[in-house]
Amino acid sequence: MSSSLSSLKPFHVPITKVGLRPSLAIGSLGCSSVTSVGIWRRCRNRSTPAPAIASLSIVSLPLLTGLKTKVGLEAKREAVKTEKAPAPLGSYSQAIKSSNHLFVTGVVGLIPETGKFISESVEDQTEQALKNVGEILKAGGSDYSLVVKTTIMLADLKDFKKVNEIYAKYFPAPFPARSTYQVAALPLDAKIEIDCIAEVAEA
C-alpha cells in the first residue's frame, strides 16, 4: 500500500477548468479548493511525493459584500396621484407607496385648481401646504396620525414660530419626528415646503 502511494505523482488541474463560474449560491463563486492546489505546489517545489488526493473539494467565496439578487427582492412601488393636491411640477410623483409606507414629495402652498399660491403670507402657505399633504396622504391610504417623519423647508427661519403653531393643529401626539431647515430658495419662490413619510393604514 505504501509503495502504491509513493508512486502517485502530483497532478495539476488549472483552476480555470474546474469552475471559476458563479455557483448557484447567491453572492459566491465556486472554485477548486485552495488547500488542494497549495499541497500540489509545495510538493512540486520540494520534489517530494504528493499525498493522495481523492477529489477536489468545492468552496464558496464571498463575491461582494451586500450583493443582492434582483429575484424577489424588488419592493413593489405604486405612484399615488390625486387631483385634490397640486400636480407635480417635474419628473416626480406626488407620493410613492412602497410596502406599508408612503413617501410624500415636498408640497408647497399652491391651490390645486389654479396652480397659484393661496397668498404671499407664510401662514396661509403653511395652511395650504398641510392641506395638500393631507389629500395626498388620504389618496395613499394614510392620514396625519400615521405620519412618522416630516421635513420642513423655510425660505426664512424667522417664520418658524408661526409655522409651528399651525403645524401643531394637524398632527396629533405623539408628534412625528421632524427636521426643519432654512434654504436659499424654494420652487416658485414659495415660503415653505413640507414632505413626509407615513405608514399606510391596514386594510
Written overview of the protein:
22% of the residues lie in helices and 24% in strands. The longest helix has 18 residues, at 122-139. It has 2 domains: 2-62, no CATH class; 77-199, RutC-like (60s Ribosomal Protein L30, Chain: A), CATH 3.30.1330.40. The chain is built from 4 helices and 9 strands. The model is unreliable at 15-44 and 52-71 (pLDDT under 50). GO terms for molecular function: deaminase activity. InterPro entries: RidA, RidA_CS, RutC-like_sf, YjgF/YER057c/UK114. One of its GO terms (cellular component) is cytosol. Belongs to the RutC family.
List the helices and strands and how they pair.
Layout: H1 2-6, E1 21-22, E2 28-32, H2 34-46, E3 58-62, E4 77-80, E5 95-98, E6 101-107, H3 122-139, E7 147-154, H4 160-167, E8 177-182, E9 192-199
Parallel strand pairs: 7-8
Antiparallel strand pairs: 1-2, 2-3, 4-5, 5-6, 6-9, 7-9
Low-confidence stretches: 15-44, 52-71
Tell me about the biggest sheet?
Answer: 6 strands, mixed
Task: Give me the secondary-structure category.
Answer: alpha+beta
Name of the top-level CATH class of the largest domain: Alpha Beta
> Which series of helices and strands comes N to C?
HEEHEEEEHEHEE
Instruction: Please tell me the CATH architecture of the largest domain by its name.
Output: 2-Layer Sandwich
Q: Got a strand count? A: 9
Shape: globular
The number of distinct helices, counting runs of at least 4 residues, comes to 4
Beta-strand content estimate:
15-25%
Side-by-side strand order of the widest sheet = 4-5-6-9-7-8
Pfam families: Ribonuc_L-PSP (PF01042)
GO molecular function: deaminase activity
InterPro entries: RidA, RidA_CS, RutC-like_sf, YjgF/YER057c/UK114
Family: Belongs to the RutC family.
